[in-house]
Amino acid sequence: MSAILPPTERLWWKHPLDRVEGTWIAIAFVWCMIMFFMMIYWHMYGKQNLSTETYKTTSEQFAAKAQAVVDKYTVRVETDFQTPVVAPPPGSDVYMIARLWNFWPILELQQGQTYRLHLTSMDYNHGFSLQPANINIQVVPGYEHVVTVTPNQSGTYSVVCNEFCGIGHHTMVGRIYVKAEAGNVQ
Amino acid sequence: MSNNTTYRTCPRSGLQFESQAEKLVIANAVAGVIFLLIGGILAIGIVLTRWPSVHWLEAATFYQVLTAHGLDMLVYWIIFFEIAVLYFCSSTLLRCRIATPKIAWLAFALMVIGSVMNNYAVYDGASSVMMTSYVPMMAAPSFYLGLILFAVGALIACFVFFGTLVVAKREKTYQGSVPLVTFGAITAAIIAVFTIASGAIILIPTWMQSMGWVEHVDPLIYRVIWWAFGHSSQQINVAAHISIWYLVAAVVFGAKPMSERVSRGAFLLYIVFLQLASAHHILSDPGMSVEWKVLNTSYFMYFAVLASMIHGLTIPGAMEVAQRAKGYNKGLFEWLRKAPWGNPSFSGVFISIIGFGFLGGISGVMMGTEQLNMIIHNTIYVPGHFHATVVIGTTLSFMALTYFLIPVLFKREIINPTLAKWQPYLFGLSMYFFCLVMMGAGTLGVSRRHWDMAFSGAALAYEWPGAAYLMMGLVGIAGIAAIVGGALYIYLTVGSLLWGKRVAQTKISSEPTPIPVGAPSAAAQSYGSLGFAAPGTFVLAMIFLAAFVLYYFINWKYLSTLWGLS
Questions:
Q1: d(CA B329, CA A133)
Q2: CB-based contact A131:A43 (threshold 8 Å)
Q3: Of A160, B218, B499, B550, which sees the most CB atoms within 10 A?
Q4: How far apart are CA B166 and CA B359, in angstroms?
Q5: Are B559 and A48 in contact (CB under 8 A)?
Q6: CB of B451 less than 8 A from some CB of A
Q7: Chain B residues lying within 8 Å of A114, measured CB to CB
């Protein structure tokens, strides 16, 4: 009789479907398949797919590689902490360290060019939240995540830490400058 | 066979309560409500700190309060109440004694000790690690130990529930299959066993690391396994609150499931596929392959989403069929207009169904899409989503059930029926608004678990757009309104228990009265239109689908404008 009593028909699984249920299940099933294949479609034709290229690393190894790039391509320093601004050539490997409580160094990239951005954390989990574009990537200690990025707009971007990492979490903000393409100065 | 216990038949509902089971249901439900009260008080601190123009608490206090709020609401309030629901759905609905009441009390004791120990660790100050407690950030050992003890207690309670099903079967208190609501509770309990086992697998080594016995728990493996606990525990809620929706539809309307086969099949899909959702939390992580992400985030080709969409139709559909049978047959929506909107059990469940589907469901599928996850991961969109699922979905359903249980289980009249009538609207609708503005702020990028959106003291501060500040201000206002709604619930529940008029009782017997065998009902429906038994519900479902499709593709459109990533 009702949902809180045993079904009155012993063979309830033979009870016919009402049309409203059958129709809805068919529609919902088609929609589920569309959503499923949309993800696969985007991997083939979409331009925003997060790389899964990952290596095990240690903070010493990663820091050494990041330092080498900083030594080679630093163009100036900014802020009271003398944070280097690094402008590596297009197509190259660039490194960003997340640690309590900053992102280091500042990057200067060129619009329309592709870079291999290496991310890791020196201590706790951190979050790489690129603003105002709103691209968010988890940064996990011990793992070097290589994300291939192609900035499509020039301007000043901030990297906000959006994974809780302790009392100074709200001061953890980094920066990426994107310079306009030659002949397309805004 | 009577095991020195007695059976009370409620004069109002006809439900039969075994005295041991009754005490256990009461104890677990009351413990749950106490944690809801604590969690609600903590919510004041969070809301008033994230409201940018108020920015009340200090950073350290804020993170401490946020950790405790998450645990008290998502774990303790909900699981205590769920254990009460499990006992109710087995012993009460099947009219049998509860299996091993002493062990059930042991489970309760473990859960109380664990939850108090874990709470104490947070208030003590050295465990502000958030509910997720991602390693290598470490809390005090008692933080993990408390959680583990609680989990063991809950696991034992699940097995008492399974034992009770065996008792009912063996003592033949019912014939044929268990009721649909009990079937839903079984789904919840099976998911709970998987969930709690995952929690133990990862929290035990983490506790050992906090004791210095284990050197290193891998941060990425921690995240993967922890979420098999953290997200799956919310799937227990889904199974439990959907069972409650069916229960309230049955109690308020005498509604019969449109088709047992469809509703049970949908629960079965939950058992098989729902746990995969824990992968949603790892979508923006390094390490996992694309194939793993796509297959898991889609709960294996969205079969669990399909199940939710089925329940979303069949529950209002069953209400519509029952209303039409009573003669509310005019047009598409007379059945809905003439529904008992003044009955808080019904209004609570209906607000819950709509909010869970439109706000929680659509946002959940969007954010659980592999590529789309990047535009909301760890933003305040995420709590916006799960307040829609867990607060509007689960908590509001539990509140609605409470209004039914106060006279039936606690044997008291509700002290202020007028206030009770308005409570689901105040709480539910302010939560709707709260979730919407939170998701709005998250769409603009605002971080979750963040003390200061002005970044005071940062060398390279970022300036959020004005709209983000506006949204967070509205989060504050809506949050306060919802907290007032929650406080009303606590007042009504506790007040009724303490001062409510006693409901006259009759009939206490030493033997259970088995459930009478019902006569099979005719399958043919003679009402509805276009050959549809529930045309109004179908129209609502199509509106839902349109909103879903539109919102889904808007997000893909936005994603396509972003930096190239490969």
A1: 51
A2: no
A3: A160
A4: 39
A5: yes
A6: yes
A7: 564
CA distances from B444 to B3, B49, B285, B466, B475 (A): 61, 19, 21, 10, 14
- Phi, psi of B174, rounded to the nearest 5 degrees: -145, 165
Residues B250 and B248: their CA atoms lie apart, in Å, by 5
Distance between A91 CA and the closest CA of chain B, angstroms: 13
Report the C-alpha gap between A160 and A143 in whole angstroms.
20
First-to-last C-alpha distance (Å) of chain A: 71
Distances (CA, A) of B63 to A32, A137, B452: 38, 22, 11
Using a CB–CB cutoff of 8 Å, tell me whether A45 touches chain B.
Answer: no
**What residues does B508 pair with on adjacent strands?**
B8
For residue A25, what are the β-bridge partners?
Answer: none
- Give the contacts of B23 (CB within 8 A, at least 6 positions apart): none
Q: How far apart are CA B449 and CA B274, in angstroms?
A: 26
Query: Helices marked H in B125-218 — which ranges?
Result: 141-170, 180-211
Q: Are B209 and B551 within 8 A, CB to CB?
A: no
* Chain-chain contact of A136 with B374 (C-beta, under 8 angstroms): yes
Of A4, A83, A149, the CB nearest to B564: A149
Looking at CA atoms only, how far is residue A183 from chain B in angstroms?
Answer: 20
- Residues 6 or more apart whose CB falls under 8 angstroms from that of B139 comprise B121, B126, B127, B129, B133, B210
Q: In this structure, which amino acid lies at residue B540? A: L
Q: Is B332 on the interface with A (CB under 8 A)?
A: no
Strands A102-104 and A93-99: antiparallel
Reported ipTM: the value is: 0.95
Nearest Cα neighbor of B19 from B329, B287, B342, B411 is B411
Cβ neighbors of B330 (< 8 A, separation 6 or more) are none
Spell out the per-residue pLDDT of chain B, length 566, in tens: 446 789 999 988 889 999 999 999 999 999 999 999 999 999 999 999 999 999 999 999 999 999 999 999 999 999 999 999 999 999 999 999 999 999 999 999 999 999 999 999 999 999 999 999 999 999 999 999 999 999 999 999 999 999 999 999 999 999 899 999 999 999 999 999 999 999 989 999 999 999 999 999 999 999 999 999 999 888 899 999 999 999 999 999 989 898 899 999 999 999 988 878 888 899 999 988 898 888 888 777 788 899 999 999 999 999 999 999 999 999 999 999 999 999 999 999 999 999 999 999 999 999 999 999 999 999 999 999 999 999 999 999 999 999 999 999 999 999 999 999 999 999 999 999 999 999 999 999 999 999 999 999 999 999 999 999 999 999 999 999 999 999 999 999 999 999 999 998 777 888 888 888 766 655 444 455 556 889 999 999 999 999 999 999 999 999 999 999 98
Amino acid, single-letter form, for residue B218: D
**Cβ-based neighbour number of residue B514 at 10 Å:** 16
How far is it, in rounded angstroms, from Cα A74 to Cα A76? Answer: 6
Query: Which residue is associated with the tokens 């525990």?
Result: B233
Asked if A48 lies within 8 A of B565 by C-beta distance, the reply is yes
- Compute φ and ψ for A138, nearest 5 degrees: -75, 140
Q: Is B231:B280 a contact under the CB 8 Å cutoff?
A: yes
- Token pair 């206030």: residue: B419
CA distance B261 to B250: 17
Pairing assessment for the beta strands B564-565 and B16-18 based on DSSP bridges: unpaired
For residue B276, report the phi and psi dihedrals to the nearest 5 degrees. Answer: -60, -20
Q: Are B408 and B11 in contact (CB under 8 A)?
A: no
Contacts of B462 (CB under 8 A, 6+ apart): A131, A158, A160, A173, B455
Give the pairing of strands A155-160 and A106-110.
Answer: unpaired
